[in-house]
Amino acid sequence: xxxxxxxxxxxxxxxxxQLALEHAGYQFLDFAPGYDxxxxxxxxxxxxxxxxxxxxxxxxxxxxxxxxxxxxxxxxALFDVLFPD
Length: 85
Known about the structure:
alpha+beta
């Protein structure tokens, strides 16, 4: 199939899905605000955060690291935290 990675989303309401993805080798990447909707009270629905996870399907040596000069300061800081290699 040639896929380089697979990703999944996990609710932040309970830790079970987060832990299942981490146990299966997925890496936490970021939070996404407003992706999911939660009923917080009868008739009250609010947008909620979810966690993004990904699992690499190719060897690390096959990845091209971005030129740090092409990243905004915030993007570079997060990249360095997530992928310190």
